[in-house]
Amino acid sequence: MPTTELTGCSIIGGETVRGGAGTIHGVDPRTSSVLGPSYHQLGTDQLRIATAAAHEATSSFGNLDPSEHAQFLDKMAENIEAVRDELIERAMAETGLSRDRLQVEHRRTSNQLRLFASVVRRGDHRGVRIDPALPDREPLPRPDIRQRKIPVGPVVVFGASNFPLAFSTAGGDTASALAAGCPVIVKAHNAHPGTGELVGWAVTKAVQECGLHPGVFSLLYGAGSVIGQALVSDPLIKAVGFTGSRDAGTALMRTAAQRTEPIPVYAEMSSINPVIVFDSALDEDMDALAQAFVASVTGSSGQLCTVPGLIFVPEGIKGDAFATAVGRALSTTTGQTMLTEPIATSWTHGVETLASQDNVSLVGQGEPGPNKAAPAPAVYGTDLGTFTGNEALHREIFGAAALLVRYGSVAELKETVARMEGQLTATLHLTEASYDDALELLPVLEQRVGRILVNGWPTGVEVGHAMVHGGPFPATSEGRTTSVGTFAIERFLRPVAYQNLPQELLPEPLRHGNPWHLTQMIEGVITPPDSHR
Ligand code: NAP
Q1: Which of 27, 143, 174, 400 has the fewest CB atoms within 10 Å, measured from its CB?
Q2: Looking at the structure, do residues 326 and 413 belong to the same domain, yes or no?
Q3: 225 lines ligand 1 (CB under 6 A)
Q4: What span, in angstroms and rounded, lies between the C-alpha atoms of 276 and 311?
Q5: pLDDT at 529 exceeding the cut of 90
Q6: What is the best residue among 10, 95, 161, 258 to mutate for testing ligand 1's pocket, by most ligand atoms within 8 Å of CB?
Q7: From ligand 1's centre to the CA of 290, what distance in Å?
Q8: Residue positions annotated with a catalytic role
Q9: Among 404, 452, 403, which residue's Cα sits nearest to residue 428?
Q10: Ligand 1: does its nearest atom lie under 6 Å from the Cβ of 125?
Q11: C-beta 382 within 6 A of ligand 1
Q12: Residue 1 confidence class, pLDDT cut points 50, 70, 90
């Protein structure tokens, strides 16, 4: 039995606010049936209540001590776990994703909040650096300089359609912004409004239980091109996190850059995640390799940002046999329901465009699924020259489709890869016999991608300290960071130096005695919390 009553309203500073700009509703993509309640879309005039509340919350939330701050993130995780069953039911109905997949995603959502809590508790991200005064230094004395990182201020997050839990209302962007100490306003994804609201109340409850300023979190329903744009234009907003299409991401980048005070947009947009199969990999179990590739392309209906949409395979007999094995593996697949009918339609257009290009032919295809939002997975093939010369073959097709490109030499492949757009990942399949070839390619790949894998598949992104889920444009708008893992906190922090401030005026984490027990860099040396100055 559901315990949370869905209101169909936005949540602003802990209160429900009913929008006056029309309504939308969830749709079950498996049956096309409408799911209640109707969600009232906000108009731009109502946004300022949320941005003003977030602005007001900035100072108190940004200066919470580490244990209170971490407790809040833990409480969010606890509250999201408490509504697990109703959340998974609702997310299944709104997205067509399977129970198994959503159970994993639910666990990932609470685990990542707890991981961020552990980082906040340790406080390393506060980046404390102390260069003590050297009054006797010749020829000039050195002042006392202390640095710490502060939260940038209110952040707007656009939830992703393909991760209704782990990358939406309380997903990676929200978790990392809150961990940095920034209030968050989420623009709810209209493809899973009820899922968004359930999580929204779990977060709101955590804000209340921890006695925080109610402006720390708001969840707004409305059209992206209207309220999304207005939020990003609002002078009180200081940064943006986004996952979605290249068109929407670049529209937001333009808006942010045109403000009187431009702000950073951390947008994750489009990537085709090349896989490079070296000749040596085809001496192994070729069928197993082909099946694993097809499983990675078709899992979650291919609606993953890291789906391998491009695979380079050597010319020759072994490569021919691998292509045949891919076709065989595909013929056993069936289309799974995609997130929304428009996303399925967009996939179909993408595949039709791919299929209509010169020198492109079908490698293999599965069966269509049980409804019109479940098209048949497909892989097409071409040669390296055609791929290199035709930009249409480089575009992301969001869903279960891929292009298999035959290459003659690693030198030619290297030239092609060097000219490709930025990607989230690149994957190499090889044995030791191809290490020299791989060493040729790696420096080029490093310039083009955020994560390089060997003998694995890029789908399935580990949330940890070392992960990079990023890459040069258009994989993301800012290739110097990540949207998954604890390093993501850095996106929402800014360093401030304090020169010669008396102890009484210094912020607590920089004072003598290290009252927040943080690891500090003193005179360039990393110093654990117990050896303070
Ligand atoms: P989307 O159309 O980019 O929408 C994402 C979010 O941005 C939504 O909240 C949307 O709000 C908002 N938005 C759309 N246009 C906007 C604009 N001009 N200004 C401000 N906000 C705007 O993505 P989607 O609906 O989730 O999926 C559609 C396509 O995105 C897919 O077919 C795929 O190509 C791509 N996608 C990529 C990834 C990835 O990880 N690389 C993940 C998901 C989707 P409204 O819905 O209210 O317009």
Answers
A1: 143
A2: yes
A3: yes
A4: 6
A5: no
A6: 161
A7: 31
A8: 268, 305
A9: 452
A10: no
A11: no
A12: very low
Q: Region 166-181: what's the mean pLDDT?
A: 98
CB 487, CB 465: distance < 8 Å: yes
Inside any domain, residue 459: no
* Contact predicate 189/160, CB 8 Å: yes
Q: Please indicate, yes or no, whether residues 253 and 304 belong to a single structural domain of this protein.
A: no
| Mean pLDDT value across residues 395-422 | 98
Confidence at residue 471, expressed as pLDDT on a 0 to 100 scale: 98
Q: Report the candidate in 67, 59, 70 with the shortest Cα–Cα distance to residue 183.
A: 59
109 lies in the same domain as 221: yes
Mean pLDDT score of the chain: 97
CATH number at residue 103: 3.40.605.10
Going through 45-144 in order, the beta strands assigned E by DSSP cover: 129-131
Domain of residue 244, residue span: 11-269+482-490
The response to whether residue 46 sits with its C-beta less than 6 Å from ligand 1 reads: no
- The rounded distance, in Å, linking the Cα atoms of 214 and 204 is 8
E strand segments, 55-151? 129-131, 145-151
Total number of domains in the chain = 2
Per DSSP bridges, beta strands 23-28 and 33-40 are antiparallel
C-alpha distances (whole Å) from 250 to each of 259, 406, 473, 478, 514 are: 15, 32, 10, 12, 43
Nearest residue (by CA) to ligand 1, atom 10, is: 224
